Amino acid sequence: IRERLTNARSTGKAVTIMSGVRDPIERSLSVAMQNIDVAFADCVSSSAEATAQAIAERLTGLWLLEEDLEDASQIFLQRMIRAPLMWFEEEISKPFGFDLRSLPFDRAQGYSIQSKDNVRLLLFRHEDAPKAIESGLSALFPGMVFTLGRENSGLDKPTADIYRRLKECFRLPRAALEAIYAHPDVSHYYSREEIAAAIDRWAEVAPRREWGGPLPAAAPRPAF
Asked: 34: closest CA among 71, 72, 79, 81?
């Protein structure tokens, strides 16, 4: 791929790149399930609920741990989980010169097309796929019709029950979620309402406050 890209850029041939953006927490759960046999095999037990809980605890650590890791496998795993916070900088901006944070993104249609030199970038939201991808490709290649099939759905796999339970049990502190969704490579693609809803969905339930004050006086009963 590197050789083909170098040749295309040196000869002026058009290069078309597709890249997506997705809710970072939703994506991290999906990535965990995609790699369950490799990175989370020790979390698997006979119970879907226990497996989901173990994976959720592992993911929580990967999101919250701030100290530098030394184990190569853990570094890889953390980068895989946190990829939305570094993907555009490392894979799009540095290699191709796109400053995506300064470019507008059309949230209404779910995709935007950017061009720089002979490189065209179709950037789409996962939540708006496949329609956004089909529309974007049709705009890039006039006269062609694109229809994307539904493949690789987590709900169709043997691990579907684990995935469903993982979505039910995974939670992070609200402060951590606010920091994640405030990242410019996330907040640029979602509205404030969408971000608020996502934080509410994944936030830990606030602990119940113990009432320590006096009980309110009973209202006087009317005389009949």
From this structure: 81
